Amino acid sequence: MGSRRRSTLRVLGCALLITLQLAYIKMAAAENFVGAEIANIERLLDAERYADADSKALLLLEQAYQQQKIPADEFLSLGVLFLNTSRFEVSKVVFSAALERYTAKGALSKMALTLLHLATSERHLSNYDSSLAYVHRAMSIAQIERDDTLKARLNLELGTIQQQQGKIEIALEPLKQALGYFRDNNMPSEMSLSLLHIGDLYSTLNQTSLAHTYYRDALESIEKANDSRLLGIIKTRLGALLLKTSSPSQAIQSIESGLKHLDVTKDVGAIAEAKMLLGRAFVEQGDTSKGRKLLQEAMAFAQSSGQLKLMQEGRLALARAYMKEQSFELALAEARTGTIEARKHRDLRDQISFLSLQLNAFVSLGEFKKALDIQSVIQQLREALLDSENKSAIEGLQAEIEVIRQSHTLEKLEESKELALAQAEQEKLQTTLVWSISLAALLFTFLIWSRYKQRQQTIILRREVRQQTLTLQEKNEELQAAYRTLEEVSLRDPLTSLYNRHYLESQLPGEIRRSQFSSNQSTDTNKSKQDLLCLLIDIDHFKRINDDYGHIAGDKVLASFAQVLKHVFRLTDLIIRWGGEEFLVVCRQSNREELPELAERCREMVASTPFDIGLEKPINITCSIGFSLLPPDRKDDFEMAWERTFAVVDYALYAAKLSGRNGWVGVIETLNNNENKRTPIDHKFNFTGSRIATSFNNVASIKWPDNLD
Question: What region holds the GGDEF domain (predicted)?
C-alpha cells in the first residue's frame, strides 16, 4: 500500500514539473516572438516604410492583448522606436498600452518615464494641454519617488512645451532648473539640450546676442560627448540665427554642416526641420525654386507625422517665397491658412507673422482697404503680445521702485532722528544721559532674557522637529501606499467596484481603433473575433425598490447586480457603472453573432437570481437590455462612432422597456442594401438597413419610442 502511494506521488510530481516546463517554454517563445517582431518593425522604419511599420505595430498590440504575458518593457521600447522616427500617433497608442500595464503592476518609476514619453509625443503634435497633463502626473510620481534626474528631465520637457506655446516669460525658469541639475551632475547631452532650448527662447525674443551665446555653449558642451544628432541640431539652429543677423550664404553653410551630422543618425524629424531652414535660406538668397522644393518636401513630412509647428514654419517660409516671386495670390492663400491655424492654438507671434504677410500681399494687389483692416488687427495683437512679454519686467521694475522709495523714507527718518537727538542734547544733556544709562541697562537686561528664552525655544523646537520628522516619515509612507491605489480608485465606482465613465473614456478610443483595424484585416467578419459589442442594461422598476425598501436596500441591489454581471461576462470585458441603475458592458475580442446569446444569458441570470436586501426573504428583479455592434458603421471616426452607438443602444433599451421589460432589443449589424423593410430605428439613425434581434415575439411586436431626447 505504501509503495503504491509513493508511485502515485512520483507520477503527480513528474506531471507538475512537465507542466511548469511547458509554461516556461511558452513564455520564452512569446518573448522571442515579440523581440523578432520589434526587430522587423525597426527594419521597416529604417527603410522608411512607415505604413507597413504602423500596421505591424498595431497587429503586435492586438496579439499582446490576447497574450497577457508579454512584458510592458517591450511596449516601452517599441514606443521609443516610433517616437525617434517621428511617428507620434502610433507612439501614443504604444505608450498608452505600456502605461496600462505599468499601472496594473504599480511600477511608479516606469509609469513616470512612460508619461514623459507621452508628453513628448503630444507636444510634437501640438496637443499642449494633454502634454502638460502628462508632465504634471509624472512630476507627482517623481516627487514621491524623490527621483531628481527625472524631475530635471520633466522640467526640460515643461520648459519646451511652454516655449512652443509662446509662454516665453514662464518657460525660462524650468529650463534653468534643469540646466543647473544637469551641469552639477556632469550630464553633457542633457546640459547641451537645456542650453539649446534657452537659446531658442532668446532667439524668439530677437535677443540674438544672448541666443548665440547659449548656442555656442551648447555646441562646446556636446562636442566632448560626440553626439552627432544633437551636434547637427545645434548647427542648424545657429544657421537659423545667422539667417536673422547676417548673409544667407553663412546660414546655408552652417545648416548644411548640421545636415551632414543628422544624415548619419537618420533622425527624419530633425532632418525635415533642417531642410525647412535650408529652404528658407535659399529663398532669402534668391534661389526660390530650390528653396520651395526643400520647403514642400519638409512640409510633406510634417503633414504625414502630424507636426503642426513645423507645418506653420513651412507655410510662413513658402508664403515669403511666393512674395519674392510676386505670386501674391499663392502667398495670400498660405498666409490665410497659417493665420487660421495660429488662431486655433492662440499663438500671437504666428498670427502677427502671417497677418503681416497678408498685409504685404494686399498692398501689392492694390487692395488697400483690406490692408488697413489687417493693419488694425496686427496692432491689437502686438499690444497683447507686448503686455504678455512686459508683465514680468514691469513687476521687477515695480519692486525696484519700491525699494528705492523705502530707502528714501528711511533716509528722511534717519535725518529727523539725528536732529531730534541733537536738540535734546542741547536742552537737557543731564536728563538725556540719565535716560540713556537707564535705557542701556534695560536693553542689556532684555538681551540676556532674550538669549535665555531663545535657548529654551531652540531646545523645544529641536524636540518638535524630531517629532515632526518622524510624523512626516510615517505620512510619506502612507502617501506612497495611497498613491499606488490612487489611479485604481479614481477609475472605479465606490459602491459596485466596477469601472466608471473615466476609465471607459481612457480605454474606448484605443479599443475602437484596434477593432476597426482588425476588422479591415479580416476577410470573414462572420467567423472573426474582432468585434466590439456594446450592451446597455437597466434594472426594471428600480425606483419602486428605493420607495418600498429604502435607499440602503437599493444600494445592496446595485452591488449584487454588479456581481451578477461579473458572472455573466468575461474578465476581459469592460463592465461600467454608467449611472443610477444603468450599466454599460463593452465586450472585446467578440463576434457580433454572440449579441443575442449574451443578452439572453444576462436577462435569464438576473431573473433567476434572488437578491438579499436584509429582509426575511430575498426579492427578485428583472432587467431590460439594449445592444449594438460598436460602431454600427465601421467608417465612423471615434467621436461619431461612440456617440452614435450609445444613441442606438439607448433607443433600443427604451424600446425594450416599452415592449414590456424583462427582455432585450438590439442591432446585430447594419446593412448596405435596402432589400428588407426599414424599421423605425433605421429611419431614426439613417441606416440603409439593419438586422434586428429581440427576445419578444418578433420584430413587428416591438414598440418603438416616438422620440428620445
Answer: 530-669
Kindly report the number of other CB atoms within 10 A of residue 375's CB atom.
Answer: 14
pLDDT, mean over the chain:
80
627: enclosing H helix or E strand = strand 623-630
185-205 pLDDT, tens digit per residue, is 988 888 888 888 898 888 888
* Amino acid present at 632: P
Mean pLDDT of 68-76: 72
The angle formed by the CA atoms of residues 416, 418 and 422, to the nearest 5 degrees, is 115
Alpha carbon distance 78, 94 (integer Å):
7
User: CA 579 to CA 500: how far, in whole Å?
Assistant: 9
Residue 452 has pLDDT above 60, yes or no: yes
- DSSP class per residue in 202-215: HHHTT-HHHHHHHH
Helices (H), 67-107: 72-84, 88-105
Neighbours of 330 (CB within 10 A): 16
CA 380 to chain centre: 33
Task: Tell me: pLDDT of 316 over 60.
Answer: yes
CA dist 423 and 138 (Å) reads 68
Amino acid at 365: L
Q: Is the model's pLDDT at 395 over the cut of 50? A: no
How would you classify residue 536: left for phi > 0, otherwise alpha for psi between -120 and 50, otherwise beta? beta
Q: Residue 686 pLDDT > 70, yes or no?
A: yes
Q: How many CB atoms lie within 10 A of CB 339?
A: 21
Q: Which of 584 and 35 is assigned the larger pLDDT? A: 584
Supply the pLDDT for residue 521: 65
290 burial (CB, 10 Å; 0-12 / 13-18 / 19+) is middle
Q: 321: number of CA atoms within 13 Å, CB side?
A: 26
Angle at 485 between CA 483 and CA 488, to 5 degrees: 125
Q: HSE, CB side, 13 Å, CA atoms: give it for residue 48.
A: 7
User: What CA–CA distances, in Å, run from 355 to 315, 339, 381, 382, 385?
Assistant: 12, 7, 10, 11, 14
Percent of the chain with pLDDT over 90: 20
- For 694: left if phi > 0, alpha if psi spans -120 to 50, otherwise beta; the answer is beta
